[in-house]
Write a structure and sequence with these properties.
Layout (H helix, E strand, L loop, with lengths): L11 E6 L5 H17 L3 E4 L6 H10 L1 E4 L10 E4 L6 H9 L3 E4 L3 H15 L3 E5 L5 H7 L6 E4 L16 E5 L5 H14 L13 H14 L4 E5 L5 H12 L4 E5 L15 E6 L5 H12 L5 E6 L17 H8 L7
Parallel strand pairs: 1-11, 1-12, 2-3, 2-4, 4-5, 6-7, 6-8, 9-10, 9-11
Amino acid sequence: MGGMTATTPARRVLLAAPRGYCAGVDRAVIAVEKALEQYGSPIYVRHEIVHNKYVVQTLEKKGAIFVDETAEVPEGSIVMFSAHGVAPVVHEEAAERRLATIDATCPLVTKVHKEAVRFADEDYDILLIGHDGHEEVIGTSGEAPDHITLVDGPEDVANVSVRDESKVVWLSQTTLSVDETMETVDKLKEKFPQLISPPSDDICYATQNRQIAVKQMGAEADLVIVVGSKNSSNSVRLVEVALGAGARDAHLVDCADEIDQAWLDGASTVGVTSGASVPEVLVEGVLEWLSQRGFEDVEIVKAAEESITFSLPKELRRDLRAEAAELAGKPSGT
């Protein structure tokens, strides 16, 4: 073919829809902003509110302080729990330190926590499919530590043992890949034929929709760029899903600055998507970068319509400053 322009395929971008912020992330980020507006800084946040570097840095500039442990929050302060959820022991630690709390746990994660509590109360062994050390897994496991066994992927199934094979249920981290989770479930069912499934699908609607859109574009794309941070489980999964769907190459970047020009070698179709904790401004930066290199034609690959929204944490509707002062035994503004 050589360098003949007549045979050079047109350069185009396939832009996934939906992409970026899900309802749980949107709610969590707005909750931090609202708390800062309402109560002033600092607002302490236990762990990253969502797994995105840009979002965390932006909120830090506005006065949020991110801490790893509840013990780092000064007594009588306001602390917010991240979208990934926390174990009950964390609520207890906050009460001991007389902290006013705002719980920004995603409602879909809360649903899994409630399922864990219910099955533990009925004395089931719960097999939690998820990644060891992920904040969401730590939070869910903490709801019923004596009943929950972590299963970290299909290869982990061989190590799993239960007390009673007729009382076993599986639950899952919400941000996994649907395919990998079902592969793990199938293996577990081979081992434990009486394994029951949760009453509703644990993998969240947004994770599924973003994966479906990437599958649709993957087969056609020479390169897929996923905008997201490396500690974002759902963003990492999107890279894996793209490659599994037939994309020649796929990479995770926090922003356009991290794209390597060499990835474009021989590429005529580039897929672009973003994880559920990624603001659209970062995607716009990637589209701009591509357009400067001749990829100006953008086609939307639409997999689903998303209209779900979640109301803000109930604590934001009360005066937490007064509550914090009262907990710390100080007079509040009188």
